[in-house]
Amino acid sequence: MTPAVVPRLARLGASISLEKDAGLGATFADGVYKDVSFSSGVGALVSDADVVLAVQPPAIEAVEAMKAGALLVSFLYGAANPTLVEALRDRKITALAMELIPRISRAQSMDALSSQAALTGYYAPLLGAVNMPRILPMMTTAVGSLRAAKVLVMGLGVAGLSALATAHRLGAITEGYDVRPETAEQAQSLGAKFVDTGVDARGEGGYAREFTADEKNHVRGVLSQHIADADMIITTAAVPGRRAPVLISADQVAAMKPGAVIVDLGAEGGGNCEGTKPGETVRAGPVTIVGPLDVPSALSEHASELYAKNILNLLASIVKNGAIKLDFSDEVIAATAVSHNGEIRNEAVRKAVE
Ligand code: NAD
């Protein structure tokens, strides 16, 4: 929660309690929040609340301390956290999972995956730049010109397009690649060339589907040349609910230019590159592989600003005249509700729990 969003939340009819020092890591000291109360233990904080707003999935003790029937809005990753989901169900908490906000126009202002991915993508070329022994733009000096670096972005969702934009602004020559052909135009509008492999892997709901074995081999051949030519590669490929696809093999890494860098934003989902160590920066033969985790925390002020607004917009859509009115026929509520009134409502999560 940011100080600027507190009054907007209050206008919905809420009185607001914050965990002591909650904003400190995002530059917001307790003193800059107006009209809020503070509580130091999570248990004491949540036990009185009708609505609990959080970033990460709560600890079981926090769920047990919540009022029965309260509303929780947070990232939950229920399928991976069955014990948490059971605790939410048993405590009769209505839990709305931020990672399940549907990708529809009306919900764009609530979509925290997108807002955080935009920041993560922006940051990736900066992480790459400080790990490279070269500069990104062309530079003319008294002793001759330095050539612009080539940056290849693989996976052109929200994060990938944002990465292309930053790399272009920094003066690099940019190329983008994705299995969804409609991303070609989006990459080109950001000044990048599109690497066309001739394979269309559009899946449901605007997401990608997995490749067949033949498709994999063909694409690998086309991409090898582009990988070998790059000074920096940023990978962001993801397939919902699965391990991140591996786009760069150890052989392809070994064939890269000495000093090149790979920033693997797929690290959180296991990595898009063979050799990535999630959370670490490692040398692999001629290249450096950066495997950052939780990038939004490195941009904590703006990450918080966007997340607080995403949550505010979700709440504003369910508060009518100062009261929470949950309409389960509303597409956003139907998609995000993991538990309600002692039941697990989300089918994928229910299957994982049972
Ligand atoms: P994501 O994080 O799920 O995946 C990142 C990218 O990786 C995707 O573009 C995907 O096609 C690509 N990818 C997957 N496997 C790959 C492979 N083997 N090789 C190369 N690329 C691969 O993506 P995202 O940022 O969540 O966006 C997914 C889609 O959802 C996009 O079409 C985006 O425009 C759309 N979207 C819509 C809304 C909305 O309408 N509210 C909001 C956000 C995103």
From TrEMBL:
EC numbers for this chain: 7.1.1.1
UniProt-listed Gene3D superfamilies: NAD(P)-binding Rossmann-like Domain
Domain Alanine dehydrogenase/pyridine nucleotide transhydrogenase NAD(H)-binding, chain residue ranges per copy: 129-291
Any GO BP annotation: NADPH regeneration
Listed GO MF terms: NADP binding; proton-translocating NAD(P)+ transhydrogenase activity
Positions of the Alanine dehydrogenase/pyridine nucleotide transhydrogenase N-terminal domain: 1-120
GO cellular component, one term: plasma membrane
Record-linked Pfam families: AlaDh_PNT_C, AlaDh_PNT_N
UniProt keyword annotations, A-Z: NAD, NADP, Nucleotide-binding, Translocase
Record's catalysed reaction(s): NAD(+) + NADPH + H(+)(in) = NADH + NADP(+) + H(+)(out)
Top-level EC class as recorded in UniProt: translocase
SUPFAM superfamilies: Formate/glycerate dehydrogenase catalytic domain-like, NAD(P)-binding Rossmann-fold domains
Functional note: The transhydrogenation between NADH and NADP is coupled to respiration and ATP hydrolysis and functions as a proton pump across the membrane.
PANTHER family registered for this protein in UniProt: NAD(P) TRANSHYDROGENASE, PROTON-TRANSLOCATING NAD(P)(+) TRANSHYDROGENASE
Identification of the protein by name: proton-translocating NAD(P)(+) transhydrogenase
UniProt organism field: Acetobacter nitrogenifigens DSM 23921 = NBRC 105050
